[in-house]
Amino acid sequence: MKxxxxxxxxxxxxxISAGAIPQTFLxxxxxxxxxxxxxxxDFASDPGSWDANTGLKGHWVAQGDTLTLTESAAVFGIAADxxxxxxxxxxxxxxxxxxxxxxxxxxxPADLEGQLTANVRAFxxxxxxxxxxxxxxxxxxxxxxxxxxxxxxxxxxxxxxG
Amino acid sequence: MCRxxxxxxxxxxxxxxxxxxxxxxxSVQPADFLTKAATWTSPEFLSAWSxxxxxxxxxxxxxxxxxxxFGVEPQAVQGWFDDGRLTSITIVFxxxxxxxxYVPDAEAHAVxxxxxxxxVSLYRQVSAAVQTGLELLxxxxxxxxxxxxxxxxxxxxxxxxxxxASRLTLDEDQLVKLSIFPNEETASQLLSPGRRAMKKDETAxxxxxxxxxxxxxDRLIETVPxxxxxxxxxxxxxTLAMVxxxxxxxxxxxxxxxxxxxxxxxxxxxxIKETYDAAGETAETHLPKTTKFEFAKAKASIDAxxxxxVFRRWSQERDYLHTAFAxxxxxxxxxxxxxPDLNDQKLWPAKEGFAHASVVNGYNERRGExxxxxxxxxxxxxxxxxxxxxEATSYLAYxxxx
Lengths: 162, 402
Description:
The complex is a heterodimer of chains A (162) and B (402). Chain A has 162 residues and is α+β, with helices and mostly antiparallel strands. Chain A has helices at 31-36, 40-44, 112-124, and strands at residues 12-13, 25-26, 60-63, 66-69, 74-75, 78-79, 82-88, 91-99, 129-130, 136-140, 143-149, 155-161. In chain A, a hairpin with a 5-residue loop joins strand 9 (129-130) and strand 10 (136-140). Chain A is globular and about 35 Å long. Chain B is of the alpha+beta class and 402 residues long. In chain B, 34% of the residues lie in helices and 24% in strands. Chain B has 15 helices and 17 strands. In chain B, the strands form 3 sheets. In chain B, strands 10, 11, 12, 13, 14, 15, 16 and 17 form an 8-stranded antiparallel β-sheet that branches. In chain B, helix 9 (235-246) packs across helix 10. Chain B starts with 8 loop residues before the first helix and ends with a strand.
């Protein structure tokens, strides 16, 4: 029996219609969730799931010591523009997620930094510590999540052990 | 457990061209659960349904077994349980929303042109197979009755087969659905036996008793059933189905979608407001609406044990915050949502945002929060939002009362 009417494990998006009629469809922009079975931030916050012996969930391509995620991922509820992992001696040391600021038509919130900060706070339950050079750090489980705002209001989020 | 198809006595007689291979743990003959009331209480049959959510009384559960009935593979089989007792089974053989999936407005015409004829052809095959199979099973053509009010008013066919009865709903080029009940009387009514037995005052008292205050100040209705909408453009009708089921109306999401004219997966030109009005009439309740969520009205409604439906602007990133907060709040009730200041308001979904519907089934006035539930599954029950945010992002709200 088809089970497509069962509870949706995938993230759900909704779309505007002329009559503003509520409706729903599956999000196409979070392939990582479908292939890995977990949201990227949950995966990245659990170093036990990405140590050298475990292997990384999802599909990655290596270039030197940098691995790049080849599939789309929504991280903290926002479509990421790139997700990379830095490794040393075959062991991942950190993940970096880049969000490029864009207009609303590109699906990005107007206040990218504000939205990401609010969502990282909600995810970690940590109000965060501001960094002197801008940005903030958040503690969650076994990782530190650091959020920086770069040029052109792009935002970089890093997951690192400790 | 053997998954082999087992033929029942009726099938052997040629009446029932169907079979059920149940889940690994259960295998029940279709003739039995369509014709024998005793099957509905058998441990083997009951083990084939999805695990019920904890502490819920009125629960919609999915049949986990594979099945072919009347030669048709259903899209979904749902069971309604009261206090663990199976009270009805809904078999959706064909629903256009599930078949087409979500169809954006801009693609509605093209999709209807390209895939519509195939669906129409399938509808004819499926509706004929189910109707014929049911007539053979019952030994007659059934009895036509008209149920519902307004846009929900439509003819259905009532059958009796063995100890049980069923209601066949055929909505042309839209829906083929069979609901099975313990008896013909229940099959021929939309209001539940409990609702029908109550006088107006008693009804109001009964529902008011469903609203209670928790030690943390939450005022909550915890017994609104969650009915997952699936990958369908159905949040507006799913929330309606959830509230109407709570009020004792035995209609399904697909009935409301058909009434609203959500056709071939598209909500273009659908009549959702008229369908809400019809549902209110059918439930014998008043269903007044406001053009934005008003907390005072919602509070009165929830205090009376009556959940509120809100149409609101939605964004994926804001939804993420509500989801993450709900998850952490369970472990740490001291957590607070962002203050609704100017910085936070900038992050609220704007008018050009997506459209969504939610059920507001509680509030915590001290914390300044509404408690709401989505039609996505139990995991999104009792989420929280600042009252100010819901008031600012809503564009329609319904407040049932008797």
